[in-house]
Amino acid sequence: MQNLDKNGVVELNGQATVTLDTRELKPGFGVEIMNVDLASADEETLKAIIDTFHRNGVMLIRNQHLTPDELSAFTASFGELESNILKQFTVPDHPEIYILSNKVVDGKPIGAHFDGVTWHTDATYLERPAMTTLLYGIEVPPEEGDTLIADAVGAFNALPMETKTKIDGLQVLHSYRYFTETREYGRRQLTEQEKLDTPDVVHPLIRKHPVDGRKALFLSTGAMQRVLGMPDEEGRALIKKLADFVTQDRFIYRHKWQVGDILMWDDRCTVHRATFYDDKKYTRVMYRLWVKGDRPF
C-alpha cells in the first residue's frame, strides 16, 4: 500500500521512492503537479499521481503533448473508462474520448457545444456515476471559457449543524430523462432505447469518499429531479439552496485554460461548470474522458 505525505513523497513499505513537485491551486483545495511528462512517466510516478489525485478534489498537470492513445492509457490508469451515451462527438477509434467544441468541419460540428454550463456533477444519472472527469485542452480561447470547480467537502464542513442534521440521510432521484428534456442547451426527447439504457437512479444527498471517508454534498442540479420524501417544490428549493451555498466564491477554483492542460476533478467531492466564451471569435477543442466510479454511499 502506498501513501503520499504532504510533501508529495510516495512511500512504499515505508521507503520513499518518488517526489512530486506540487503546489496548491487554492488554499486548502486542489493541487498542481509540475515538471511531469505523462507520455514518458514511469509506473511509480503514475502511482504517485493517482495517490495525489485521490486526496485532492482537483488536479492540474500542464504542458502535456498526448496522442489519443496516450491520453486514454493515462486516464485508464485511474480505473475503468466510462463510455459515452452520445457517440457522434467522439474521437475516431476512441469512443471513450468525447469532443467539446464549436468547430465545424465540412459543414458539420465536430463536438458538443455549450455542454455543462450549469453547476453539476458528471453522470449522476448512472448507478455508478463518474469517479473522475478529465479535460485535455487542444485548442483554447485566449480569454473566457474558464472551468469552475467547487469544493463540496469544504462546503459541507461549513454548513450549519442544523442544516447537516436536516439533510442527513436524504435520498435524491437522479434522472437522465429529466436532465435531457429540461436542460437549457441541447434540450431533446430521449429515444426509447436511451430510456431503457438510462433508468432513473437514487443517490444520497451526502456521500462519503471511499479513500478517507470525508463527506461531501453530492449535487447535480440538472439531473436531480426530486428529494425522496419531500414535496417536489420543497425538495427543489432545498437543492437550489445547497447549490447556491456550495458555489460561493470561497469554495471555487477558477481554471484559466492553456493548450496542453490536463485538468482532472474528483466527481465524488466536487461540483463544476463551464463558462461561456466568444464562440464567433474563438475556436475551442477539448477532449473529455470519464472514469467509472462506485455507487455512492
Descriptive terms for the model:
21% helix, 33% strand, 3-stranded antiparallel β-sheet, alpha+beta
Topology, pairings included?
Elements lengths: L1 E3 L4 E4 L2 E5 L1 E6 L2 E6 L8 H12 L3 E4 L6 H9 L13 E2 L2 E8 L2 E2 L2 E2 L20 E10 L7 E5 H7 L2 H7 L3 E4 L1 H7 L9 H6 L3 E4 L1 E3 L6 E3 L6 E4 L4 H15 L5 E4 L6 E5 L3 E5 L10 E8 L5
Parallel strand pairs: 5-6
Antiparallel strand pairs: 1-2, 2-3, 4-5, 6-19, 7-8, 8-21, 9-10, 11-19, 11-21, 12-18, 12-20, 13-14, 13-17, 15-16
Outline of the structure:
The chain has 297 residues and is α+β, with helices and mostly antiparallel strands. The protein is built from 7 helices and 21 strands.
Protein described:
It is a single chain. With 297 residues, the protein is α+β, with helices and mostly antiparallel strands. It has a single domain (2-292), classed as Clavaminate synthase-like (Double-stranded beta-helix, 4-Layer Sandwich). Helix content is 21%, strand content 33%. It contains seven helices and 21 strands. Strands 4-5-6-19-11-21-8-7 form an eight-stranded mixed sheet, covered by helices on one side. It has a three-stranded antiparallel sheet with strand order 1-2-3, with helices on one face. A three-stranded antiparallel sheet has the order 18-12-20. β5, α1 and β6 (58-61) form a beta-alpha-beta unit. 37% of the residues are buried.
